[in-house]
Amino acid sequence: MTTTQSPLTGTVHRPGDPGYPAAVTGYNLAVVHAPALVVEARSADDVAAAVRYAAAHDLRVTVQNTGHGARRAAGPDTLLLRTGGLDDVTVDPDARTATLGAGATAGQVTAVAAAHGLALVAGAAPTVGVVGATTGGGIGPLVRSLGWAADRVRSFEVVTADGEQRHVDADSEPDLFFALRGGGGGVAVVTSMTTGLVELAGFWGGPVFFPGAAAPAVLHAWREWAPTLPTEVTTSIALLRLPDLPQVPAPLRGQFVVHLRVASTGSAEDGAALLAPMLTAAPPMINMVGPMPYSQIGAVHMDPADPAPALDAGCLLRDFPAEAADALLAVAGPDVQTPLLVAEVRQLGGASAAPPAVPDAVGGRDAGWSVFALGMLVPPVAEQVPAAVRGVVDAVSPWRSGLQHNFAGGQDLTDAWPADVLARLQQVTRDRDPEGLFRPAQPLPR
Ligand SMILES: Cc1cc2nc3c(=O)[nH]c(=O)nc-3n(C[C@H](O)[C@H](O)[C@H](O)COP(=O)(O)OP(=O)(O)OC[C@H]3O[C@@H](n4cnc5c(N)ncnc54)[C@H](O)[C@@H]3O)c2cc1C
């Protein structure tokens, strides 16, 4: 079979077509899709045509942009709708908004906005899709100053399960506007989104690395230090077991390190003074903190850009007391053998706790901390990774307050939202997709 050029402006691939293997592959190589066909959309009309085709042919629709959030493989009863071709980005500097296609990544939008001294609120990694991260909430390296990505959305253009194209904002389609800001993307396919930008040309911060052997001292110092910070400072910490691969910078390659992240919208002088006590917790190996243009926001977390087979899970915590730090060290600290690549804690609060102007479905506003663990499903450790990832979430469960959609890693989403928000999301899904056409990476609990 050859690749079929359909009346669509995009491309269709079926099993056996030369373009099919690449089209079913995304960032997470552990999730291998095997759909009946793939539609690489180039326009909102393509998306509408694909949705109608799927409905008429008894197929379900799975949407994928980058595949960073892929959690379960789409099977032969599925049409895989790839949105990477919808990557137009325009910035209105007067309105301080960006209108971006469903395929745009955070790095693309950040670069366009930076030319106007404006900043996109998104996640930590420039390669992640903006729409995917935003529909799931969106916690970035400045979340305590700038809040959730979802809170800034002004409108969406979508295709609903009936194949119709609709404009969604607070006044038109308020149920979809609520659900698409924090409830995941399962109620419609977003073709583009307009979101508010922040006047922010730069920030102060970056990464600091400590030797892994100092993890107990650094983690306990961080746990006591972070709550003393003003909300203009956002910080997180990760225990990293970095692979011996050329993509990893030489001093860190193959090392177990503690990665302290700090980012502030305040002055460099204030930031340096606030950071100083943390630098005495142990001698840092590398300190890359300083004033940075916002276009370098990805340097704070330094997430890997290359696709890899990964499994992850996370949860939200009310508190992160000494006992929780010890529990984390017992499963990911220097005294244990573990296949984990990352065990991370982010401090939340400040703007992440503030309600948005128009209520949305973002859960976890009451959480103080976010925990996340990830391992690579590669030999010889692949079989140990699921238990290790689960072990981190279990270890901190006494302090658990819920789950964040973007860090759920395919766990049941029952505690990802307050009960009334979950009930409203379930109702919107029943109303808008009564036949269950859409098959999101992470479904709502029934
Ligand atoms: C390295 C890495 C770093 C990350 N860092 C952060 C972070 O700092 N903060 C944070 O909040 N999250 C973070 N995430 C999680 C990430 O935001 C989610 O996995 C998000 O869903 C990825 O979106 P995507 O479009 O890139 O991925 P995809 O896998 O392409 O999409 C994920 C899901 O989003 C939905 N979706 C995507 N596009 C659409 C659309 N157009 N219409 C409707 N639904 C859609 C679909 O359900 C889809 O299955 C990170 C993930 C990785 C792998």
Structure description:
By secondary structure, the chain is of the alpha+beta class. The protein has 3 domains: 11-82, Uridine Diphospho-n-acetylenolpyruvylglucosamine Reductase, domain 2, CATH 3.30.43; 89-199, 2-Layer Sandwich (Uridine Diphospho-n-acetylenolpyruvylglucosamine Reductase, domain 3), CATH 3.30.465.10; 202-407, Vanillyl-alcohol Oxidase, Chain A, domain 3, CATH 3.40.462. Helix content is 22%, strand content 25%. The protein is built from 11 helices and 20 strands. It has helices at residues 20-23, 44-56, 106-114, 130-135, 143-146, 174-180, 215-225, 268-275, 322-332, 385-395, 419-432, and strands at residues 11-13, 37-40, 60-64, 78-82, 89-92, 97-101, 118-119, 153-159, 165-168, 189-196, 198-199, 202-211, 233-241, 256-264, 286-287, 290-293, 310-317, 340-347, 369-376, 400-402. Strands 12, 13, 14, 15, 16, 17, 18, 19 and 20 form a 9-stranded antiparallel beta sheet that branches. Helix 6 crosses helix 11 (419-432), helix 7 (215-225) packs antiparallel against helix 9 (322-332) and helix 9 packs antiparallel against helix 10 (385-395). It is globular and about 65 Å long. It starts with 10 loop residues before the first strand and ends in a 14-residue tail after the last helix. Residues 26-27, 63-70, 83, 102, 123-125, 128-129, 131-133, 135-140, 184-186, 189-190, 303, 406, 440-441 line the site of flavin-adenine dinucleotide. Its cofactor is FAD. Pfam families: FAD_binding_4. Belongs to the oxygen-dependent FAD-linked oxidoreductase family.
